[in-house]
Each structure stands twice: as structure tokens, then as C-alpha cells.
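1st attempt posting a full record on here, be nice pls
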Amino acid sequence: MATTAPFSTATYPVQLDVQRAPSQSRITNFPLFIGTLIRAILVIPHFIIFYVLWIPILLGHFLATFAILATGRYPQSLFGWYTGPVRWSLNVYAYLASLTDAYPPFGGAQRPLHPVQFQVDYPLRSSRLLNFPFIGFLIKYILLIPHLIALYALGIAFEAIWFIAAFAILFTGSYPVGLHDFSVGVMRWGVRVYGYLFGVTDRYPPFSLS
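the predicted structure (as C-alpha cells):
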């Protein structure tokens, strides 16, 4: 699946794709999570930066809810403050989960040639009710309970596939197409749910991996 082409604006506003490489490293994808341990050590600098940024990111969301309450719009500066770190974390997670061998770049800028592509369409208007400080978050959390249950089950399948895929890469040198598509689909589903929860879109997320 190609990821370097522009995303279609006709689809759900939160979009994610990860290009499958025809071949991957057997060392950094070694089974029994040995490869994952190697990758986790390599991305320690990313973890340190995320730890520092976590509180400012949550503060940005908190301020955005008051801005939406006053203006009915998500401030563009705070919108980028959310989408940038999410893109960055997805790059890291896709690398840790062996969905790509491309070492994650530092920063949340969109890089057209990177195998992980994440985009959120900026909303022209945002619901004051769904983004009401504190209360809107609780409303959306309740509305998302069916998704959270589904994601829990999908997460178990994701872990199993992650384990199996490592052996497939060891013997064939590549991540099986179907398993890769499923794993990316679970990530896509999850990031859409959290995008709705944190107010970057008011469109209820679909029950779909695609």
C-alpha cells in the first residue's frame, strides 16, 4: 500500500498508513522479543524526550478545550502541538512493533518519504459540547466504550501477530502482507479513537481497520 501519495480528504479526518518494506532486518526483528529489546534500547532518546513533553502536551489539550468553548474552533497552533507529537510517537511505535525498519526521526514534522504517514484534517468548527472542559472528555469516553472494548481484543491479537511476525521475518526476510495490514489497521483504529477523544475531530470513529 502506497503511503507517499496525498491522503484523500473524503475519508475519515484522522488517517494513518505504514508502508510495508519488501525486506526487513533479521537482527532487529529477532524472535522472542530480542529484536524488540534492541529497538527499545535504540529509541531511548525518544522516550526521554516524550517524558519531558507529556505534561505540556496535556496542558495544550486542556487549553484547547477553553478556546473551543469561547470560539468554536480548535486553535491551529495547539492543533499542531497535538498532531506533531502523535506523529512522532507513531513513528517510534511502528519501529518498535517491527512494522518498519526506518529509525524514527526526531520531531513531529510530516516527512513525505517516511514509511509512516499520519495526517489529521484540521476541523473548521468544533463542538462546544463534545469539547467542554473536563465534561466533554467524559462524554466522549463513555461514547467510546464499545471501541475501547474492541481495541482491547484487537490489542491481544496484535501482540500475538507481533510474536508470529518475528519468526516470519527470520525465515523469509519480510513481514507477511496480511499480518502487516492487520497490525497497521489496529494502530489506525486506535489513533482515530484517541483523536476523537482529544478533540481533533468531532466525527465519531468508524469500527474499521481500514
